[in-house]
Structures are given as C-alpha cells and as structure tokens.
Amino acid sequence: MSDTPQLGPPPERVTVPVEVVHQLVAEQFPRWAGLPIRPVAGGGWDNQTFHLGPEMSVRLPSAAEYALAVDKEQRWLPELARRLPLPVPVPLATGEPGAGYPFRWSVYAWLDGDPATADRIGDPVGFALDLAGFLAALWSVDPADGPGPGLHNWFRGGTLRTYDGLAQAALAKLDGHVDVALARQIWQDALDAPWNGTPTWFHGDVAPGNLLLDDGGRLAAVIDFGTCGVGDPACDLAIAWTLLDAPGRRALRSRLPTDAATWRRGRGWALWKTLTTCAHTLGEADEHAVARHVLDEIFTEYAVATAARS
Hints:
Order of helices and strands: HEEEHHEEEHHHEEEEHHHH
Number of helices: 10
CATH topology of the largest domain: Aminoglycoside 3'-phosphotransferase, Chain: A, domain 2
Radius of gyration: 20 Å
Strand content: 5-15%
C-alpha cells in the first residue's frame, strides 16, 4: 500500500453572517466593539474575511480543516514578518469559538493593496524580481521546528503524488478538449523530478489573490499564509505560469536559488491546479479561457525547456 497522503472529499464549509462577527468581536474584544464590520470583497475560500474598522481585518476559517492553520499563523507569522522584505499579515489577537461559530479565528492588521492581475502589474519583470526577492528571503528562514506538510496545509511542501488522483481525474474529463498526451508527459516529468530532501520554509499558495499591488502596480504585500510550512518549496513556483509572462518567468527563475528539478516540480504544481480549473470550468467560457491560457503557457514553456535540454 502506498504511503503517499491522499486528499479526501472537500471540506464541509460554514458561512458566517456579519451579525455573528459583530457578536464575536463585541463579546471577546470589547475595545473594538464600536468599529464597523463589513465583508471583504472576494474575501477568500478557506477563510471569510471582514474589515474591522479602517486598520484591521477579521479572518474566520470556513471549515475545520482550514481552522488547523490558525495556531500556526499566530505562532509563526510574527517570526517570518521580521525576516521578509515585504509586509505580511501580522496577527493582533486570537478569537475563540462563540456565537454559534465553532472555530478559533484571528484579528490582523489590515494591509492595503489590490490583488495582482496581469493588466494591473506595472512592470512584469520588475514585479517578478520583487517576488523572487521575497521568496528567496522566505526560503532562507531557519526551518527548525517549522510545521511540515500535513492536513493543515493540504500537504503543500510534500510530494506532488498527493495530487495525482486529482490530476488524473481532470485529464480524463478533459480528453478531447486539450492535448491530454502532452499534459500527461509534463505531469510525469514533474513527478519524476527529484527533491534533495532539504526542508525550506514556503508560502504554499503564491497566487494572484495573495499578492497585493500598490497604486503603481508594484508588489506591495503578500497575504494568506494558511498553507505555509516547511518542506519542498517547489509549490511556490506555480505562480511563474499562473500569472507571469515569459520574460517575467525568466526573471523569477534567474533570481531564485532553484535547480532544474525544482523548476520541473514547480511546473507540475502549476499544471495540476490548471488542469483542475480547466475541468471544472468546461462550459463556462470566460473562466475556461483564462485556465486554457495558463495551460498554453505551461505547454509552450515546457516545449522550450525540452528543446533546450536536447
């Protein structure tokens, strides 16, 4: 029997009305009871996020599995923040279950910025270099006692084989819609790429929504460390395909302490996410087109990399 972790069914999520957030804050943090509370637009899936006055946010896990990250973030984010070149969320308080809400939750200092999109980025190469500097700093933090891959971060930092079932299911659904043979080849290449086993801090979800831009389109902050941990940092490279263009991708790679095998595994992380999105959005023209664009980026970059190795 394989000892590779297997992902179970999707978590059973709860919805938190703003009235419950008001009650939680008033009961547990009366000094903030008079502040206005309103939902954050696009506040996330793993957590529901609310503005708390003008300078704070409330972050409430939407399922028991996501609540596993609360204590981790409280313990490690203050440590990481002191060692990183860009602002990251700093926890101000930890809330307890109450008012019918079943999980621990957090209050954070608010970070300004807009989620990164290709059209908002002012200088794609400069953005990539700033992101590389952030990741290099994170990867260099002492990993001693840091949390390894597990359910708290959906096994980010572990083997890509954890996601093989999801990738294969997506490939089966996409047969006849995309070049499945090429996708299988890229996926297998990523699975075969060895890791040296040296644990490193990683973010785990370096995605456009977690990269905030300032008014000039520069990288201003990195948020949502719920999937962070210590292990293989290749998962942080998926952003090279899911957001960056070819010049940005080259710039990112040039500034990171990463070898060819890590880059191949990073391509695999981008591939399974994109295949899953493509499969889920069949019949949804706009969303599917975005995912197909990323898949084309992966296919093209892989072809160039393969030709260079020949």
